[in-house]
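Schema walk-through. Below, the input block comes first and the output block second. Nothing else is stored per chain. Lengths vary across the set, and this one has 475 residues.
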Amino acid sequence: MSASSARMDGRAWGVLFVLCGAIFLEGIDVAMLNVALPLIRADMGLSTGMLSGVVSAYVLGYGGFMLLGGRAADLLGRRRMFLLWLTVFLVFSGLGGFATEGWMLLVARFVTGVAAAFMAPAGLALVTGNFPEGPQRVKALGVYAATAAGGFSLGLVAGGLLASLGWRWVFFAPVILSAVILAAAVPLVRDPGAPRGPAGGFDLAGAASITGAMLLLVYGVVNLEHPGGRAGAAGAFAAGLALLAAFVVIERRSASPLVRLGILRSGSLVRVNLAASLFIGSFAGFQFLVTLYLQELRGWSTLQTGLAMLVVGIDTVLAPTVTPRLVNRFGNARVLLGGLVLAVLAYALFLPVGADWAYTAMLPTMLLLGLAFSLAYGPLTMAATEGVAEHEHGLAGGLLYTAIQFGTALGLSAVTAVNVAVLGGGSGLQALRSALIVPVAAAALGAIVIASGLRTRGTVDPVPPAEPASVNASA
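--- output ---
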């Protein structure tokens, strides 16, 4: 396949659809569970803390193991990691459907999150590895990003439909989809680059320290929303930062580091990951607040709530068709900035929400969010690996998805903390309006971050070339 052409043959489309199916699976799995949580609580008699833990367990597994998953894909093989952890995802999603106790759900969701942490960066690296740099890769990443974003919005509707049949179907449906993807992936997906293999052995000390640090930091974030858990959150942050410092020392001295620290010197890479965290965090917080508003304040059903958010899914059509053309013409940064500005406007329009708003009053926000995702999510995914050496695409993907998970956890915790604080002295609607300021501020900050890196040609500045291992050891 020519790098100068955006045309793809049948096999290339088949590979892309399989990889898109996996990232769609990850998005739809999360969204469907969120919609079904009230039914799970009612059926199993779970406390609020246990119910929150079902969501947090997945975030802990995903965020805690993401960097390890990204590097494992580079060192042990992207296809191997993709197929192995897709299988684990399938098995533990099914086990969650058979759970009879709260702790069973916690274990199932934690391991499912770990599986996603290994599967997602391997899948992104396989996309960049199977499609040559240029229009073809831009097109492939546009389709991939649109599928990822669409999985979440469509998952809200699918979750509402499945939950009406019984909440266990929210766990069983991903099993069926996983099996289909796995059956197609085995013959279709190939890893064009053989794993490099660490010359001095796998960096076990680095892996243990960074995984422990990420677990503790994510745990601290998800506990910020609970007034009684803030002392524990402070302790988790302190221990996590200590492990992070230990990780840096270990990587500087390691002959075969888990993470080449030089990759973090790129201002472009740092800005892209910070913007991803803020953009996804703002949407996670907003979606949570809208769910509370529609179901608890307005009395809408889970299906009605999902349908209300369905229009956000227009990005599944626009992102693979319109966004690549815009990126080719204006560059990642300008298109991404446009998406972030639209997100700010969308959230701002929802600030005066009323107790009896008609859906027509909410529709402009939903449409603008669909456009924002169309313009932002694809360029974020493209920029995450732009200028990064092919053998480090798994690591770059791990950094991106780690930023997304931290953003998700922080966005949810921030809006919940504000909502709970205001509820102590005001109505539910007043608390909701106050908490809605958080998504506006987060999206605006993301726009400022990207605007600060704009160059005259409108592209994200490239990541410096990979350093030799000997240089990194003394970095």
